[in-house]
Amino acid sequence: MFRYLHFSPLLSLLTFEHFVAMAYYYLYSTIPKKPLTSFFISSPHIIFKYSLHKFVPSTTPSLFPSRHRSKYCTWVSAVSCSVAETDEQHHIASNGLVHKEYADLNLSDLFCEDIGNLRIRPHVNPLRRALMIPAEVPNWKEVFRDATLPLMVDIGSGSGRFLMWLAKRNSSSKNFLGLEIRPKLVTRAEYWVNELGLKNVHFISTNAMVSFQRLVSTYPGPLMLVSILCPDPHFKKKHHKRRVVQKPLVESIVNNLAHGGQIFIQSDVLDVAVDMRNYFDDVSNKLVHIDSVDPSLPCDGDGWVLNNPMGIRTEREIHAEFEGCKIYRRVYQKVQH
């Protein structure tokens, strides 16, 4: 491995990081050439379990003599391409499950021209000044065929397929409102709603943290269900204030919820699920967990609901379970003490 390091001038230029990088190269050259997807090197001192299609080793070909440089470049290129192909196949398979689960909606792949390129940012900072403006309250009688029906609000409705599926099966008994912070998703969802001819589901592009109270307090009918399903985790501790479930929103949900109404939360990230759980558990004088009023809904030993009670999984839920992740769920019901 180090047969080309007998020149003392070269040795003096090498650092510990160079040796570590070359050690990885040597180790890789001694094992069967299969796609290396279990780790990447972001720094020679740290190894993370992640995918190489997003991160390539920080080691550069210049670390190796010219006669080895081409091998290194070929290795990085081959591994990156192989991993990219694997992830592409994984992505296609996962999306196929989504289309299969929502097949009866038969949604068109054609959208209105003004939607533009549907490349959606996965993470949005809800505390940006432009997103702190409350949404305008719609004319509920124009939005819904019957604005007095019980209402379900989905905070972070994403593509909207989840609500459309529910709306199609409850066309005369319930109304559904989706609040989504990314405008392009709302534009497409409204296009699909019109295509399906649904008159009991509506989507609004807004920040639920600032608009929820204003919207639901004006709705003529009772608020019977609020769902917050796999919200943006905002992993960094300094960004936890961006998480949608905060005390003001929780208080607004609980205060506007009708007696007997329910709150359904879930996440594939345990830290996020526990965070949401703690907020709603703090309102124990108004909320009880579903297992205390409906024993037929099974929970595990930690109090997480085992199965999705809605009859259909969300898209994120489908992707997460396909990847082998556990979904952490809680269902609360409002009671009078």
From TrEMBL:
<dbReference type="InterPro" id="IPR003358">
    <property type="entry name" value="tRNA_(Gua-N-7)_MeTrfase_Trmb"/>
</dbReference>
<protein>
    <recommendedName>
        <fullName>tRNA (guanine(46)-N(7))-methyltransferase</fullName>
        <ecNumber>2.1.1.33</ecNumber>
    </recommendedName>
</protein>
<dbReference type="InterPro" id="IPR029063">
    <property type="entry name" value="SAM-dependent_MTases_sf"/>
</dbReference>
<keyword id="KW-0819">tRNA processing</keyword>
<keyword id="KW-0949">S-adenosyl-L-methionine</keyword>
<dbReference type="GO" id="GO:0008176">
    <property type="term" value="F:tRNA (guanine(46)-N7)-methyltransferase activity"/>
</dbReference>
<dbReference type="GO" id="GO:0043527">
    <property type="term" value="C:tRNA methyltransferase complex"/>
</dbReference>
<dbReference type="Pfam" id="PF02390">
    <property type="entry name" value="Methyltransf_4"/>
</dbReference>
<keyword id="KW-0808">Transferase</keyword>
<keyword id="KW-0489">Methyltransferase</keyword>
